[in-house]
Each structure stands twice: as structure tokens, then as C-alpha cells.
Amino acid sequence: MTRIVASKDRAGRMSRRVVVMAGVGLTVLAALPVAEAAAASSAKESFEAGLTAEKGGDWAKALDAFQAAVRADRAFSPAAVNCHVGICQAKLGRPGPAIAALEASLRADPSAGSPEPYRLLGSIYLKQGRPGDARTTVERGLKLHAADPWLHEFMRDALARLRKPAEARVEGLKAEELQWKQPPAAGKTPLGFPFAGTWKVKAGNGDGDHAGLAAKYAWDFVKVDESGAEQDAKARDKRLGPSWLCWDAQVLSPADGEVAAMEGAVADNVIAGSANPLAPFGNYVIVRHAEGEFSLLGFLKKGSPAVKAGEMVKRGQVLARCGNSGASLQPQLRFVLLAQADPLMCRPAAFDGWTGTVAGGPLAGETVKSTSVALAAPAVPSATLAAPAPISATTAVSATVSVSAGAAVSATKAEPSIPEAGTVPGNPPAADSGAAPTP
Length: 439
What we know:
Helices cover 28% and strands 22% of the residues. Helix 3 packs antiparallel against helix 4, helix 4 packs antiparallel against helix 5 (116-127) and helix 7 runs antiparallel to helix 8. The chain is built from 9 helices and 16 strands. The protein is α+β, with helices and mostly antiparallel strands. The two termini are 50 Å apart. Strand 15 (396-401) and strand 16 form a beta hairpin.
């Protein structure tokens, strides 16, 4: 236990001593002038108030408290205070002040006892489309925190955006090794396939084509006809998006939930052209179903997302249209179940009634026949969406799924719901699936 004790020195000046109590005795650690001790005490109180506000998610209140700590005593733990100021500024959507505070934190303590400043700086630079700066920052962090999985994940992301797929894959596998000593648990929310009709898995379900914390358990789906073809045989120009059967197909919500984040302004890529590593998931919608369970649907068609952040959605509701945006080289749908949305970290998913080769969902090359019904968007007053209430588990959707060589099953499930939102830093998908060659 520490205490500040007031006393007079030999010259008769008031001072305070910071002491630590050990049993019944007192050990003097330092002697401070009264004014300095008062400033330190005030800064400490403000700092602790900031930590409390942070835990409650009140970022504006936390920022005010941390800045009050700086005003009270600039010498009070500048590395820690500036780090927390940077976190708050980032959460409040102010990347410039966040970068300034985080860099100040690292100047105050270059050895950084925590990898957090390096993680957050790397994430901000990636969101700003500055992979070179992200790489430089993360490299600094890895020299001190080589066993931190998130630094390896952000390095993977930076290298992928710098078009260094082989190096990026190595970093992604290292992040997986450090983060997951054992495979993470699958989500518990019953999920329907996010489409209707017959689709095939290009890559996914942890089959090794995807790497990294954001994409290891991702799926890439393409629509096919009865012969298994992905394109319309009658199309005159197969380089165009409409020649692909999944182009402009409806993308459905896999379960009830709340839209946590979305993007719809990313241009679709030219077929057989180059992908867009700076916007890895392209246009996307993230739906929060339960604590630690978010569905991300990516590679969507530009301008097609039909929902906004904060909107409540039902299972089967049309969210957007399939496109070819982001790190994709052909029209396809990216689906990932996330354990967290910022930064992205995936987990295995389990689809209703799946009876294929492995439990949970299809493997690369397997075909899914889904009879999920697309629901019309509910007429919900905008005022209701401002303070969404939890969704009751009452809406059920029937779907039939099968593997290309197996029997079909029918499943009817009800879904839960939840509030809260997340943001996307953007973690690139992997190669060999029609996705751009990233880890």
C-alpha cells in the first residue's frame, strides 16, 4: 500500500513523501514538494477515471479524463497517458490526433512495455491506405514483441496490400500459430446459407487456401448451373460480370441481428484484371448476431448494400448483391464468421442442416443446394433504429442443403439477436479461390 505523508524538511519547507507500507513500518520512496505531489495525485485520479470510462465504452469521457491528467502533471506517466489518448481518439474516429498521441507515447517509452501502440498505429495506417507506414511501424513493434499475434496479422495485411503474397502468407500463418494453440470454437448461432439456389465452394472452411486471423475460416462461394459451370455458356463476352451466374445475385442475412458496419462505394474489379488490395473485402456488410458472433459478407457489388449500420435485420433478408469488389478476381461471395469485428478475427461457423464431408459446412469443391427464401426488408420506422431492441427468437426460415454427392436435409431453426457495432480495418483474403493472391 502506498501513502503520501506531509512533513517539514530541515529548512522548514513543507513537502510530501511517497511511502510504501510494509507491515507496520514505512519505507520512504521519494520526497516531493507539496505542489508537485498534489499535481501527481490529481493526474493519477484523472487517469484512473479515464480507465473507468474506457471500460464502459465512453470514449469522449475517457479522453477528457486523460487530457485532464496531462494538464495536471505532464510528467505523469506520459507513455501510458498518451497511449490511452491515442486509443480514445481512434475510437472517436480522429486518426490524425490518434497517430500524434501514439507516436508521443512511443517517444516517451521507445521500448513500449505493451505492443498496443504499435498495433493501433498499424491498424490506423492500414485503414488510411498507407501499408508502407503500417509495415514500418509494425516492424518496430515486432523487434520488441515478436510473439504478439496481432502484430504479425497487421504485418500480413500490410504485405498483402504491398503485393507481397508469399511474405504475407508466412506472417498470417505465424499469427495463427501464436493466437490459436487449439482451433477456436465454432459459433453457436444457427446460420442459413447467405444465398438461394445452387452454389459451389471455391475455397474455405479452414482448408488452407486462406491464412491469417481474419480469413482462415472464410468461405468463397460461386453460383453454378446443373452442370457445375460458373458462367453462362451463351454469354458473348465472358470477361464481363453479367456472364457469371453469381453476378448481381441476392446476398441474404444468415441470421437475425444488427448491422454493425457496411461499405458500398468500392468499384468492382475488371474480370481477369487486377484486384484491389487496398480494400480487401471490397464492399461488405457485417451483421452482429450474438456476443462474439458477426457475419461478414464481402466482395459485394458497388452500390448494392441495402442496409445501414444500426439497422436490425432478419434471417433471409436481402442485404446486398454479389459482385467483384476488393481482393477478388472474379464475381463471388466472401463469407466469414467473426469472433470480433475490430480488429477482425474469424472463427469456424456451423450452417443449419449441413450433412457434408465435415460437420459445420462445405469444403472446397462441394456444392450447396439452398432453398433459403429471400425476405423483403421490413418497414421499420427510422426512429426505431436509433435505439434497437433485441430481436426475439421467433422468426424461423426453412432451408434445404446438400452436398454434390450426398442426400439433402431440411432444417428449421430460430435465431437470436443483439445490439452493438464494430468497424473494419480490412484484412485481406487469401489466394487460389478467385481471390487475389494474398496470404
